[in-house]
Design goal:
The structure is a homodimer.
Chain A (H helix, E strand, L loop, with lengths): L2 H12 L15 E2 L48 E3 L18 E3 L13 E5 L5 E3 L1 H6 L3 E8 L16 H5 L2 E10 H8 L7 E6 L6 E5 H7 L1 E6 L2 E2 L9 E3 L12 E7 L14 E2 L5 E2 L8 E6 L10 E10 L5 E7 L7 E2 L1 E2 L9 E9 L4 E9 L8 H7 L15 E3 L5 E3 L5
Parallel strand pairs in A: 4-13
Antiparallel strand pairs in A: 2-3, 4-5, 6-7, 7-10, 8-9, 8-13, 10-11, 10-12, 14-15, 16-17, 17-21, 18-19, 18-22, 20-21, 22-23, 23-24
Chain lengths: 419, 419
């Protein structure tokens, strides 16, 4: 919307003609009539600085927190996850206190002074690193999205979840800092026959994955910091792998071992889990790229529009294959689409924020977003995914379009499979 | 350093020839001889997910925290500050728990449900906003540095501080989210005679500043979120001003009042404070742009290099006038300079990370960085600043080059005024 259009829109909708509370269409709740009251905080000293305190959110924001899923009840809690409250996340960074958690046997307590990382297998010279060693290497910091392959698995063909935290909250945006894996492997010297790399964690599940050497040498990082400070314990402290754009579980946390081989290992997480059922009864393996996806975070499930008139549709888009090129939004369930504004910076394999103005007339509406990435790939509907894959059981890699239905009361509901 | 040079450098310095601990020149501490021990964390379950917990750093990172200055003792603690531990900050984002604090009468406890923001003065229609109103407006998220004008004031002509936290820690990097001030003022309708804008806080000091309307309409934001969540109480919760690139104290926190006038107000913070003494006995007023600056955060004061050989010089550069164009580093106290690598993304009025490889021979060295911004402005030495301004007393706006001296033991010391 051009500046003048927007101004006219506000002028129209704000109805700033009287001295009392403006009408239902107002973006501002009131024109000024009486003098502004002087609040008590202007009249008495505030809280003094607590020496050496690590800051925490306001007590009024206690509702903004990670939550386990309410939908898929966990029968035991050693293999568990919690989800990021995306409905409260403005911008492309997730604060470290709200980054989603996922582990297979709890979060280990690792002393960085005794932790060791080894590179071995098909290398000229096995190497062992302390944390001090790793931090000394040439470093890089990069913004990337991080998403669990299971994000959205409860909501394929009918609504199970209420909020975007439950449908999409296995997603976070992070500035990672570490050493390119290529630097360390280069120092060990890769055997020309090496084709796959094992990463193993120091947790009780000894979580392990096989990753093609080509991807490891391309952009994989051995990471010790996130969003400007050391990794958090639940996110891999003191060191982890980050494989940009790929399903989260290949980015092995609490990293202790890197091994080079000429073939993959076919771990449990590569056969019984993290694979995709296909229509012919076969299962697709090593489908590790998180494909282009987007979601509207506001308005989103569980929220309520208070008044008709101007609302900004806001959301996040991302692709494991590159940058976001465009996001389209629909307010009529996909009958018509218009292009949203993308917010700079638009970075490779990173969350991109989009926005679109919307004049809600007060009637039913179905909001959708559809992202296109730099390869030209268009985010599909679930129906389109179903043409290629079998959607049955515990299905991973859900990048389908998410519809949110708004009723005449302004209540927003999950409408997956219904729009 | 080109890839092959770097590899040779590592190969040379790592001395990976034996099975025991490598020599003093090693970047890796050991080549692998014995099998890697299986740690206890691989053998027993870890900590389970705490329902609805807001995450906190590892207990092993307790030393990474904000601190009051050790140098300038505060006689009372209502007007106070704490500083960001930049020596531990990898990347251009400061975690919200470590963002520097500065207030004149403590941090108020403001309930967002009752807080109101008013725009009045030389406007066609005064307006009053609830927080719900503000969040509904078209939003923007932008990365900007945030720096107190007093950053570095203890260390002009001789060393007073030990660490970069003490010399430069009134600096943070933040992704701000809010509404352009222009949008709200546009809705109120600015009187053509309006030239200045007052911002007033709801804290006990009722902190107030006058800002030229031109800057307010250019890029000033009315902000409610930082780094992906609501503002923290000490940083202005629930709403503040952010004036990109200008001294921190004009970005009034706990914002309750915006008033348009045809002239500035000349508040105490514009006469007795936040002004610059000049050689002729006069004082420069309204010098609010934070000019181009950089600092090496590693190696930096109080750290110790453990071994000669490869070290990466790392630091941050920023400019209130635009983007960082280049950073030069010197390891010989400014006799010779070479260009550092800048890390993408390089954004307007934002921290930019720079890096340069360094082969420390084990002797004395003096490390310096010098930033150049997109206007062509070159960060000056203190001696150069002294030619234009009087450096005496409580002097603000220190953007001089910071030297760190390394001795033959590898100890790093503040060398301001000595190099």
């Amino acid at each position: 919307m051009a500046k003048n259009d927007r101004r006219d829109f506000f002028r129209r909708s704000a109805a700033l003609t009287g001295g009392a509370i403006a009408g239902a269409a107002a973006a501002t709740s009131a024109a000024r009539a009486a003098p502004l009251a002087v609040p008590p905080t202007n009249q008495e000293p505030g809280r003094i600085i607590e020496e050496s305190a690590y800051g925490v959110p306001s007590k009024y924001e206690a509702h903004v927190k990670r939550r386990r899923t309410d939908v898929l009840k966990n029968r035991q809690n050693l293999s568990d996850w919690s989800m990021t409250p995306l409905q409260y996340q403005p911008g492309i960074i997730t604060p470290n206190g709200l980054i989603f958690e996922r582990h297979h046997a709890g979060t280990p307590d690792i002393d960085p002074r005794t932790h060791r990382l080894v590179i071995h297998g098909m290398v000229k010279q096995p190497l062992e690193f302390t944390m001090d060693d790793l931090v000394r290497y040439p470093s890089v910091s990069r913004f990337h999205f991080h998403e669990c392959s299971g994000n959205g698995l409860t909501d394929w063909v009918k609504p199970a979840s209420t909020t975007v935290q439950q449908t999409h909250g296995l997603l976070s945006g992070v500035l990672w800092t570490g050493v390119p894996a290529a630097t360390l492997l280069d120092e060990a010297g890769i055997d020309p026959k090496g084709k796959w790399v094992l990463f193993e964690g120091a947790d009780a599940s000894a979580h392990t994955r096989s990753v093609p050497l080509e991807k490891v040498l391309d952009d994989t990082l051995i990471v010790y910091a996130m969003n400007g400070e050391a990794l958090r314990p639940e996110n891999g402290y003191p060191v982890r792998v980050v494989i940009p754009g790929w399903e989260g579980n290949v980015s092995v946390k609490w990293l202790r071992r890197v091994k080079v081989s000429d073939q993959p290992w076919y771990f449990r997480s590569e056969t019984a889990r993290y694979t995709d059922p296909m229509p012919n009864g076969k299962w697709r393996k090593f489908s590790m790229v998180m494909e282009c996806k987007s979601v509207i975070t506001s308005p989103s499930g569980g929220q309520q529009l208070k008044n008709p008139g101007f609302h900004e549709i806001r959301g996040l888009a991302w692709s494991g294959s590159g940058k976001i090129r465009a996001v389209d939004v629909s307010t009529d369930g996909g009958k018509s689409w218009r292009e949203a504004t993308l917010e700079e910076p638009i970075m490779d394999k990173c969350l991109t924020r989009f926005k679109a103005p919307w004049d809600w007339k007060g009637g039913p509406a179905v909001l959708m977003s559809r992202a296109v990435d730099s390869t030209g790939y268009v985010q599909p509907t679930v129906a389109e995914i179903q043409k290629a894959r079998a959607i049955a059981g515990f299905v991973q890699h859900h990048n389908g379009i998410q519809p949110w239905a708004v009723n005449e009361k302004g209540e927003v509901r999950n409408a997956i499979g219904q729009a």
